[in-house]
Amino acid sequence: MDLKEYIIQKSKEINIDIIGFADCKPLLNIKDYLIYKEKENIQTEFEEKDMEKRIDPKLTLPSCKSIIVLGISYNVDYNEKTNYKLKGKLSKSTWGLDYHIVLKHKMEQLVERIKEVTDFEYKYFVDTGPLVDRELAKKAGIGHYGKNCSIINQDYGSLIFIGYILTDLIIESDEKSIEEKCEDCNLCLKACPTGALEGSYRFNPKKCISYLTQTKEKIPYELRPKMGTKIYGCDTCQLICPKNKDVSKSRHIEFIPTNNKGYMDLEELLQISNREFKEKYGYMAGSWRGKTILKRNAIIALGNMRNKESLPLLINLLKDTNPMIREYTAWAILNIDKDYGKTIIEEAMYIEKEEEVKKEMECLLKYFFTNLSNNK
């Protein structure tokens, strides 16, 4: 029996869109880039800190001989409108059921099918593993890097979720040289709202809106307006990419946003309890960050809408128990109406009990009335 062909056939039966195979040699091609990121301090808190673990599969599974790399498309068509008065955008990556659940289930099914014909040692990961999954995908022949550093598959484009299974099986690798196909196109570089794409195949994750909507670190003032009304994730560089036109659409109904329609009701998000949040949004991939971070993003979105009708809602949040919420609320109020906001923030500072929040409000007033004025 040809084990590789058997695995490919079973993956199709499980409805896995893409499959490829790689050996377990270290991912040396990406080491220089990882060193660059470390030197430039543009690593994120979500990345494995041990560089060797990021490139050497055997540090995760010492018996590793082959890696099965899988991909499923989340490029679903959906255009239903929502009637939310104040709405924030969600990335397609969190439209439907949490992709970690979907892809892990398919990987578990594939593992069980393989176990029916041979016993083997394995470890599998979706997004949370130490290795650079995009580099594994490239090595396994799943696709090539776009200039936006996404992996682009010939049939499904770049809107794909990637998972991998480290195994001690001996399987022929699909490793082959896949030419980069972006040529002279630089639409993604031009479209990136924050300039996170600092050049072809050069990506600064700390400026990426997708990262900004997830981090607990303080978001720089100058990047907040560029986030627009995005509550979780960002699809800008992928939606403009020509390689995502005329590709096969996702067949996975789990990713159809029947519950949220691709948006969140901002007014609701700012007022619901943690329990209500988990009940309504706990199924989404983006819910892993919890209500507070998404609530912060909603406040930024309201600030960027610059609708004065939102001011009463925001002013009420200056009494929120969470200091971070009070700080971002001050920014949003000033961004909507800095003159009126100055009075509101000064009153809030008078009753504010935490010195750090007071200092932040002072910095915001200086930023809006000194720095921004000088830049006009």
UniProtKB/TrEMBL annotation:
| The 4Fe-4S ferredoxin-type domain, residue ranges | 173-202
User: InterPro entries given for it?
Assistant: 4Fe4S_Fe-S-bd, 4Fe4S_Fe_S_CS, HEAT_type_2, QueG, QueG_DUF1730
GO terms (molecular function) for this protein are: epoxyqueuosine reductase activity
Q: What is its EC number?
A: 1.17.99.6
| Keyword 4Fe-4S set for record | yes
Question: Pfam family of this protein, just one?
Answer: Fer4_16
**Keyword terms of this UniProt record:** 4Fe-4S, Cytoplasm, Iron, Iron-sulfur, Metal-binding, Oxidoreductase, Queuosine biosynthesis, tRNA processing
Q: PANTHER family, alphabetically? A: EPOXYQUEUOSINE REDUCTASE (PTHR30002:SF4)
Indicate what this protein is called per its UniProt record: tRNA epoxyqueuosine(34) reductase QueG
Q: Which organism is it from?
A: Tissierella simiarum
Gene behind the chain: queG
